[in-house]
Amino acid sequence: MVASARYHGPMQPRGDTEAVVLDSLPYADRHLLISVLTAESGVVRGVARSVRGGKTPAAAAAQVLSLIRLEIFQGAHAELATFRRLELIESSYPLAAELELFAAASAVSELLLTFCPPNEPAERAFRLGRMVLAGLLGGVRPEVAVAYTAQWTLALAGLLPPLDICASCGTEIEPPVATRPSDGHPVCPRCRPADHRRLERADLGFLALARRRSLTEVGDTLPVGVGAWLDQVVHAVAERRLPALDFFRIHGAGRG
Question: Domains of the chain (ranges plus CATH)?
């Protein structure tokens, strides 16, 4: 599918910056419409001209989840920026060799694109994207990387529900924690529905550890309930299915 959008007006330079590539779509004949995540400006959408086709360095730099350096120009009232001088810093291309790694990289990019704000500073989200790229390239398990990203993107957006307070009545909850199937929010024994799900102590332990440690320090094993619970919260907050995340659950290491 060819993307369509408008970019117009006198362009002002935003400067030279590092970015994580979140999405890349064909635009017109030889251009790409790219979404990137920067520390200074959050998610920025822009056009990279004349980079489709062949093996140009800019085309290689447009791989999803790659870390790049680029120049950003944007008019005051333009919907899209213009990207110039795309240079590859760390390529995600090796992840494409294995389906589960490719699916994980796509899911991570989708989570960052969904929950990171456009045109607002996002230093912690940018550092998260860079960390997860390095982790996947360095051998971190794909399901751990996706869960870590989901938890942190929700937390940074202020959308991760606390797990020690009942969402229905406000009562403090002791583990294990029952959750509503509709949105993943915790409920006490008195308020929980018959079809509730449950986060065990191991699940809660992983989630607590992930809030305190880097990706490479949380271990290689993802407790059974963590991925399913995070998916519940992600889809409820987004109010839609996330295709790349669903693909990862079906075809990647996150299949369950």
Answer: 11-91 (2.40.50.140), 96-251 (1.20.1440.120)
